[in-house]
Amino acid sequence: MKKLLLFSVVFTGLAMPMTGHAKAGEVLRTVYFSALDAKGTPVTDLTAADFAVKEGGKDRAIANVAAATAPIQVSLLVDDAGTGAFQGPVVQFVETMMGHGQFSIRAFNPQPSKLTDFTEDVGALKTALAGIGARGKVASTGDQMVDAVAEAATELQRRKAARAAIIVLTVGGEKPQSNQAESTLNALKNSGASLSVVHLSGIDLGQVLGDGPKRSGGVIQQLPSGVVPGPVLAKIADNLLKQYELTYTLPDGVKPNERLSLTTSRKGITLLAPSRLPDK
Fold it and tell me: What pTM was computed for the model?
């Protein structure tokens, strides 16, 4: 595994379904998800017999369940008010995930600025990660968050990312009652990416950051003031690295539906799975 070894940091103050043709007119749909036990530890020994799938309220036949191995594309959105507080944890996250996919990084200054497009190049990532260090005081009002999530989701859809994640780290949250919230949630659905949000306590997440993780199979993690997100990001990395890939079939002539329900018969298991899918 490549190591970035970029910084000595003093810390201050977290599926795109692929559609293809099967036999006799059937359509295959694939989703990526994680399974956690009561302690939040990934469970990796589940089989097809442990799951049930409904799409559009109808039972669907599971074709295969296996450990996910496809490369993952991760879009990181860092809203730290210019403090650089998230830099060290993000470096550790990228180091953990190296060799398993590509990364895009945006920093809010206060507008979201892309520091690198999707890459696994160590040099490019080193430069980008340097850009989320302490930058002086930056206003963090939440005005730009919805647009940034929409841009990241649209980018992933355009790239036809089969397995994707958007991770937001924010001290400002999201501007309440954004007119673009529904269209952004729709873009998130169409991208197939999971959205995970790591935020300071006491801020307003709004509709996108509040509902997006539940719809997409991500998580929301609240940090007390002054606590850095290192362990939380490490946990998100572990969840992503231990995802399952589940493929199920739609009968001939049945159109894809956006509503998904994935359940397990195994007791004490929580599934981080999308409830909304691209409907085509």
Answer: 0.91
